[in-house]
Every structure is written in structure tokens, then in C-alpha cells.
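DM from R.C. (forwarded with permission)

"hey, sorry to bug you on a friday — could you get me a structure for this? deadline for the figure draft is monday and I only need the backbone to look sensible"
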Amino acid sequence: MKTKEILCSLLALFPLLANAQASDRAFMGNQVRSDYMTGKLSSGFYPIVKFDPSPIPKALLGKKQDGRDIEFAKRAEKFFEDDGQNLAMLMLDHGQIVYERYAEGVNQDSKMFSWSMAKSLTAYTVGEALCSGKLKSLNDQAESYAPEIKDSAYGKATIKQLLTMSSGAPPGAPEYMGSQKDEWMNLTRGFKSITDMINLYGARTENPDVFAYKNLDTDTLVLAVNGGGNFQDIFTKSIWNRAGPEKSATWLVDKDGVINGSFGLGATLRDWARLALESLEMRGGARGKCIQEFMRSATTKQIANEGGTTINYYHYGYQTWIDPREQTGIYVWLGAYGQKVMIDPRNKKILILFRHQHDAHVNQQLSRLYRAWTNTPPFQSSASGLGQSNTSK
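My reply, with the result:
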């Protein structure tokens, strides 16, 4: 290659390198830039697929509040005002809005980014694939649907092992908290595909059937569903459309167009509420007995969480965190930097919070608020309330 051509090629790379450096600076320990939580990552900044809104959105009406509702709305307002990292918050009682609040610059159109909360929806899509016959059994090995990963520990793992984060594939270093080295950069910038990452980091098996939080366990589930059917279509028809979303949503994809099931869904606050309500519909039997049974398993303890690189407060169902006092029935979707969806199926109370910084003290405050609102006794532990969620980058 001539010197001039080499120089031109290097100059063409400078904008990409500058963009990569700017992106890296967006992540600072337990904090991320607020615009990364409220639309930037859902705007096509990285490759995405889009999901259309429903022609007839599910109504979310304000509740006619009694004295107790007013009390907890006031407590929620104080909680929101007391910390500048809070971005959006919603409380639902039987599908009716008790409290809704947005920080300055955030509104009902903002795409609230999921990070690892997407994992739970990936699991429920697996359930729909199972109930529609696209997957034959949770005891099938992933490689029977995704032969491209047959030489990896992820491929040898069963669907159920992947759902419970117990594939036995080696976890990343503790500081990566569920990710392999440079996983976020490789997947979002198109350097490697999900299949590449699995084959690169999943060559050996260490401790199968032992809980170890790994993003690639979740991503392998997407590959398995794609081998039996089409993950995007199943999620769209069986979960997204049925939830009755009001706005469009997006999900990050790798360089092959495969949805990154471990993180990447961006939807409005109210549409996150609709997704939570849909999970209750699925769990309650409105979508049929098969998915009801799957969801009952998904939202109850399947494997003990003995700590390690993730929180030591919740247990684990199928890609879903479970209140350690199982009699409460509470299940939780957790994401990096402090966002969460808490769902109590006993009394249909849902609390959703998005923020851009993990803070143990704030988690404790939110835990107390939610448990008082749902009449759940406080959990006596030195753990950080609702615990620290995992980063997926």
C-alpha cells in the first residue's frame, strides 16, 4: 500500500477512536453519564433494532388516591428529591399510577436504558419459545440449537443452566462484574459478535450448576432461541405487542444483528411499567398454562446466590432476582447504576426507578419505602438494601 493510502486510512480511523474514547469516559465506576440512561444509547448511537408502539396502547390511568396513597406519594417525592442521581420513578397499584416523576430534562418520551434489566425479558422470551415449541426442553443443550458454539462451555450448558446463570463457563474478573474483558466495547462497536465472544471466553467448564453471574449466559439464550425460531419476532409478538406499549423501543444488537439479551433494551418509563404488568399477566395465567408455569418458576428461587461478583442479597430465578424471603413473592429486574423494577404479585404493586449511579444508601431507602408500601416486613441484614446491580459493559 502506498504511503498516501496508509495515511488516508489512519485519518479515517481518528473519528472512530475519538468516539471510542469519549464513550469510555461515559462510564465512571458506579456512575454513568445521565444521557446514556435517557436516550443516547437508544438513538442509534450503537446498532439497534426497533419495536413499534401498539396502535391501541394499554391505558395507565392515575389512581383515585386515598389517604395512604397520598402518604406514600409524598414519601416517594421526598425520596426522589433527596438524591440528584434519580432520573425517573413510577409507582403502580393494580395498573393505576400512584406516583410519577421525572428529573429535569427527562420526560415521558425519554428512552430509559435497561442495562441488565433486559435479562429478565430475555428469559421470558425463552419461555414463550418453549411454549410455542421453538425450544423442545429446558434440559436441551444450547449447542443443539446453536451449533456455532458447540465447542464452548456455553454450548454444552443446558437452557436451564443458562437461565439460572450456572453454565459453568468461566466468569470474567471480579472487577468486570459479569462481563468479560472489553465485552461492552467489542459488542457495541462491532469488533466481535456474541458468537465470537462465547467461543473466545467459553472454552472450558469450571463449576456447572453453581451460580456465577455472566452476561454471556444470557446472550447464549438468544442464540438458542434464534436456532429454534427468531428471538426478535417472539419477543415482539408474545411480550412487547401484548404489553400495549405507547411509544417505540429499541434493543442493541451485535455486528451480526443478534439482539444483546444481557443488556440494551430502551423504552419509556410507562412502557417499562406495561412490560412489568405483562409479566404479571403471564405469571397469572392470562397467556395460558404453559407460560404461567414457566413464569412461576422464573420468578421464584431456582438457585442460591452465594455472593461473589454480584449482590449477595437476592436469590435467582430465571434471569430474575428473587426476594430472599420467598413467601413475599417479590421479584426484581436489576440493572447497572441503580435502576430496578420491583414487582409484588400478591397485591399487584410495582415500583420502577431509573438513576445513573449505584448508591447503597439510596437502595436502603428505596427498600424501606417499597416494603412499607407493600406491607412487607423489613429485611434485617447488613447487606445494602436492594443490593448492588451488575454492570454490563
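R.C.: lifesaver. The longest helix spans residues 3-24.
me: no worries. Residues 216 and 300 are 22 Å apart (CA to CA).
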